[in-house]
Specification:
It contains three helices and five strands; from the N terminus they run βββααβαβ. The longest helix is centred in the last third of the chain and has 14 residues. It is about 25% helix and about 20% strand. The chain has a five-stranded mixed beta sheet with strand order 1-2-4-3-5. It has one domain: 3-Layer(aba) Sandwich (Rossmann fold). The protein is an alpha/beta fold. A hairpin with a 5-residue loop joins strand 1 and strand 2.
Length: about 100
């Protein structure tokens, strides 16, 4: 897994130049446990970015409050750092509330 400068653990799969899909897991889960079964199929046609939310999987829990606003900023910061201008966001449970 790769990491951003702020410590978000992420993985990119799929063909370069394809449309982006960002996969966001739910509470108490990880990107691998949630999307491991379907990400390879999606990666046949799309560039897939999956990552661990703050305090989940390989991403540490930062100091301070973690709420939906902060989780939303996490995905914005991640996309900015990776120069992803446009993507479809796909979320499960808590991940579906992040935008």
């Amino acid at each position: 897994m790769a990491r951003t400068k702020d410590g978000t653990a992420y993985e990119i799969t799929g063909p370069q130049g394809a449309a982006w899909v960002v996969l966001i897991h739910g509470l108490g889960l990880t990107h691998a446990s949630t999307w491991g079964g379907i990400a390879p199929t999606l990666a046949q046609e799309f560039q897939i970015l999956s990552y661990d939310l703050l305090g989940h999987g390989e991403t540490d829990l930062p100091s301070g409050r973690v709420d939906l606003k902060r989780l939303g900023q996490q995905v914005v910061d991640l996309m900015d750092e990776l120069s992803i201008d446009r993507a479809a966001l796909v979320g499960f449970s808590l991940g579906g509330m992040i935008n």
